[in-house]
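Continuing from yesterday's entry. The apo prediction looked reasonable, so today I'm repeating it with zinc ion included to see how the binding region is handled. Same sequence as before; SMILES copied from the compound registry.
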Amino acid sequence: MRWGLSSVAVKRLESLQTEILLVISRAWKRTVRQLLERELHIIPILYKLHQAAMSHRCQMRCSNHHHVLKAKRPNDSSHPIHHLYALAFSDIRQVYKLTKAELEDTNSEQYTNFDELWIKDAPRRRWINRYLEHRAFSHAGMSWTAWRDCQPASRIPNPAYQGEWGEHKLQLHTGLSAAQSTMLILMRTGNIGLAANPVYRMALGIPTRTCPLCCVAEWGLEKNQTVKHMLIHCPALSAKRTDLFIAAGHSDFTLFMERDVKLATAWAISNFGLSQFDKVKNKALYQLPREQKDTEGN
Ligand SMILES: [Zn+2]
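Holo prediction written out below.
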């Protein structure tokens, strides 16, 4: 699928996409590209490029230029163009077969006139592009699952590692301030200024993942300074946390990360002690208790 691109060029493309994703999401550097793609619902660049290239090839394969292009192909059958030509031909046949079968089920007028429509550029292009888009999405999903299933067990509890491809989280950012949106991506990916994050520990030379606020495990609850520990369990924050639980009407970490993100991020900005939020953490917007209208799902 790399159509002659060197591995260096492929890595540069992926690296460029990662840089852009970091800017868009405001995630920390070294946040894993796959997490940002899933959170923001961005198809990996190689699949997107393949989709665009195959769309072009399929259109050319169907165009009036086809015979000219065919005549100009190199004689050497091992030349890559023969492979690409075969791929385009295979895709076109597949689109024809699948689209016709799909329309047959609907018993529509389009099915009755399918062969007439197929030789017209506009509907054929639309069907081909739809097929290629679905395939890119499907490949991205398989790639996500394969990658996620290889991740260390210690990272899986972070919300961004859970769920399947396509369950993107853009809607969670609706109505959040810029600081809250930033906090949400940090909390969901786990790449945040807490001791349980290996990236943070390595950058600051922190020797342990233990929470510096409580330092001890109580009642078997985790003492590692994870997002969940800070939001739900840390005894050092229990007094401040009461307002959060009352406002939300629950103490469920998953609900805070999947639904009540406005409350969770506001409280985190105000109470996690992350220096990047020092300038905004005292704003009234991030203090609890709030007016009832600010709570979600109640
Ligand atoms: Zn603690």
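Comparison notes:
- The chain has two domains: 43-148, 170-294.
- Residues 291-298 have pLDDT under 50 and may be disordered.
Will overlay with the apo model tomorrow.
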